[in-house]
Specification:
Elements: E1 5-7, E2 13-14, E3 27-29, E4 70-72, H1 77-80, E5 83-88, H2 98-112, E6 116-120, H3 124-135, E7 139-145, H4 150-157, E8 162-166, H5 170-180, E9 187-188, H6 194-200, H7 202-211, E10 218-222, H8 227-241, E11 250-256, H9 261-268, H10 294-303, E12 307-311, H11 313-327, H12 333-347, E13 356-361, H13 386-391
Parallel strand pairs: 5-13, 6-7, 6-9, 7-8, 10-11, 10-13, 11-12
Antiparallel strand pairs: 1-2, 1-3, 4-5
Bound molecules: zinc ion.
C-alpha cells in the first residue's frame, strides 16, 4: 500500500495517512487500478474489487463486508416513477454500508502496525468500527455525543470499545480528531476519511457490475457528511478511466429538508457548501448541518448531470413504509430518503418512467423500529374459531 492521497479540487498530493488537503478540501486515494475487465473468480464480498482498494489482505469480519444484494423492486416502480432497484446495504455484517469503510480502515491499521483506531459517531459508523476492531483485535476509541441514548450505548458497547461521551460542539470534534489522528496514537477514520471513502466506493462498483455491460441511468443516495456520495463518484470515475463503463450514471443526492446544506447550496447555485441552521429529522443518520465533504458531493452531482434535492419528514416516512409494504425491505428512515427524492424528481419530470434508477438503502431498519408503523390487519382470535377466520379472509 502507501499510495498517495490527492485532492479532487486543487490536485495537490499528500501522504497516505493525511485526510484533508491544505486547501481545506477532503483527500481521497489516488489509485490507478490496472484492470481491463470486470473481476472474475468467486469472491462475493467487496474484496472482489481489491484491485481498486489501497489494501488487499482483509481478515475475519473485514473479509465479509460488502457484496450486498441488488434487489429489483418492480412493485415500487409506480411509486418512484421509474424502473427501481435497491442496493440493500442492510445486508452488511453490522447492518449498514459503514462496514465497507471500516473493513478497509482496520485492514490498513493492521498493515501499518496501528494499535488504536477511532471514530466520531453516535450510530451506524460507531457500531461498525467497534465491531470491525473487535473482529481483528484492535483497540477502538468511540467518541459519541453526551446525549446519546442508553440503547445506542449498548448497541455500540457490546463490541467492547472504549466509549467516551463528549460534552461540547460535536461538529468541531470531527476536525479536532482529524488533526490529532496518528498511527502512533489513535488512527481516526471518520465519515469521509480517505480509507473510508476507498471502501465505500465499492457500493458503486458492485452496482455497475450488476448492470454491465450497461450502466443504470442514475444512482440515488442519502447524503450526510458527503463521504459516501464522494466515494460513489470516485468509484464511477475509476470504472470509466479503466474503460469498464462508457457512461456515468447521473448522481442524485437526497437530504431531509430540515437539514439540507448541500441541497441549499445546489438550489442557490453556490460553489461551496456552508453550515446551515437545522432541526432534528426522522432520518437521524443523515442529520449533518456542516458536512465535511459537502462541496465535493455538490461537485459530483453537478458534473454527472445529477441533482441534489430535499424531502419532507412526511415524505421520508411514507417512503419508509413503501419500502416495507411494496418491497419487503426494512430500512432505517434515512435509507428511504433516496426513494422519496427519486419520486419527487420523477414527478418534476427529471426522471423518466423508463429510467433504471438504483436507490442505495444504506442501513437496516431492524436496529430501531421507532418510525415503522404496522401495516398489518391485527386481531386476536379463539383457537376454536380458526376455520371461521380462514373462511372469512377477504
Ligand atoms: Zn486541495
Amino acid at each position: 500500500m502507501e499510495d498517495a492521497t490527492v485532492c479532487y479540487a486543487c490536485g495537490a498530493r499528500s501522504e497516505a495517512t493525511d485526510q484533508r488537503c491544505s486547501c481545506g478540501e477532503p483527500l481521497w486515494y489516488d489509485l490507478d487500478p490496472q484492470v481491463d475487465d470486470w473481476p472474475d473468480g468467486d469472491e462475493q464480498s467487496m474484496w472482489r474489487f481489491a484491485e481498486f482498494l489501497p489494501v488487499s489482505d482483509p481478515s475475519d469480519l473485514a473479509a465479509a463486508a460488502g457484496g450486498t444484494p441488488l434487489v429489483r423492486t418492480s412493485r415500487l416502480d409506480d411509486y418512484g416513477g421509474c424502473r427501481l432497484s435497491v442496493k440493500h446495504e442492510g445486508a452488511n455484517p453490522t447492518g449498514s454500508f459503514k462496514d465497507r469503510g471500516s473493513a478497509v480502515a482496520v485492514t490498513a491499521a493492521r498493515e501499518r502496525g496501528v494499535e488504536w483506531v477511532g471514530t466520531v459517531s453516535h450510530g451506524n459508523m460507531a457500531m461498525s468500527m467497534a465491531a470491525h476492531a473487535a473482529g481483528c483485535g484492535l483497540e477502538c476509541l468511540t467518541l459519541v455525543p453526551d446525549d446519546i441514548s442508553d440503547a445506542r450505548v449498548r448497541a455500540i458497547g457490546q463490541f467492547g470499545p472504549t466509549l467516551r461521551r463528549v460534552d461540547g460542539d460535536y461538529g468541531r470534534l470531527y476536525y479536532d480528531t482529524v488533526e490529532r489522528s496518528s498511527p502512533e496514537t489513535v488512527s481516526f477514520t471518520n465519515s469521509d476519511s480517505p480509507l473510508r471513502t476507498a471502501g465505500q466506493k465499492t457500493t458503486a462498483l458492485e452496482i455497475c457490475e450488476a448492470f454491465a455491460p450497461d450502466v443504470p441511468d442514475a444512482i440515488a443516495l442519502p447524503v450526510s457528511s458527503g463521504g459516501h456520495a464522494s466515494a460513489t463518484w470516485k468509484g464511477l470515475r475509476e470504472l470509466r478511466d479503466a474503460g469498464l463503463i462508457d457512461a456515468m450514471p447521473r448522481l442524485f443526492w437526497v437530504q431531509a429538508a430540515v437539514c439540507d446544506p448541500i441541497a441549499q447550496a445546489y438550489r442557490e447555485g453556490a460553489s461551496t457548501v456552508s453550515r446551515v441552521e437545522s432541526a432534528e429529522t426522522v432520518a437521524y443518520s443523515i442529520g449533518n448541518n456542516d458536512p465535511p465533504s459537502g462541496t465535493r458531493a455538490l461537485t459530483a452531482a453537478r458534473e454527472t448531470d445529477g441533482a441534489v434535492v430535499s424531502v419532507t419528514e412526511d415524505e421520508i416516512l411514507d417512503a419508509t413504509a413503501a419500502l416495507s409494504t411494496k418491497a419487503g425491505l426494512c430500512v432505517e428512515p434515512s435509507s428511504a430518503v433516496p426513494l422519496a427524492g427519486v419520486r419527487k424528481l420523477a414527478r418534476e419530470g427529471d426522471v423518466a418512467p423508463t429510467d433504471d434508477v438504483v436507490c442505495v438503502a444504506t442501513g437496516t431498519g431492524f436496529k430501531e423500529l421507532d418510525y415503522h408503523e404496522t401495516s398489518a390487519d391485527v386481531a386476536t382470535i379463539e383457537l376454536d374459531d380458526l376455520d371461521r377466520v380462514l373462511s372469512e379472509l377477504p
